[in-house]
Design goal:
- This protein has a single domain (12-91), classed as Roll (Ubiquitin-like (UB roll)).
- It contains one helix and seven strands; from the N terminus they run ββαβββββ.
- The chain has one helix at residues 30-36, and strands spanning 12-17, 20-25, 43-44, 51-52, 65-68, 71-75, 86-91.
- It starts with 11 loop residues before the first strand and ends in a 7-residue tail after the last strand.
């Protein structure tokens, strides 16, 4: 569904999402890298458990919340992918600061 443009691509890096290696390019957000890898479910809502994924890709909607290196409530669209980071799907609500 999503494809990377060849021009302007940064150097290849990789991180782990739910135990799977995800290829990314330096400078990409976590959300872009996950979408390019075919991942569309980033979190499950606290009330109904409904799946959610990126909607606005600019930090307004909060549908792309994930856990990054153990820290929850991170907006994947606003966090630059780093080589070696560990990202997990956010399940339900998280307390602030955890």
């Amino acid at each position: 569904m999503f494809a990377r443009r060849a021009e302007g691509a940064g150097r290849p890096i990789a991180f782990v999402f739910e135990g799977e290696r995800i290829e990314a390019r330096e400078g990409e957000s976590v959300a872009v890298a996950l979408l390019a890898a075919g991942v569309s479910r980033f979190r499950d809502t606290a009330v109904s458990g409904a799946p959610r994924g990126p909607y606005c890709l600019m930090g307004v909607c909060f549908d792309c919340l994930v856990v990054i290196d153990g820290e929850g409530n991170r907006q994947a669209c606003l966090v630059e992918a780093r080589d070696g980071m560990v990202v997990a799907r956010q399940q339900g609500k998280r307390e602030l600061g955890r």
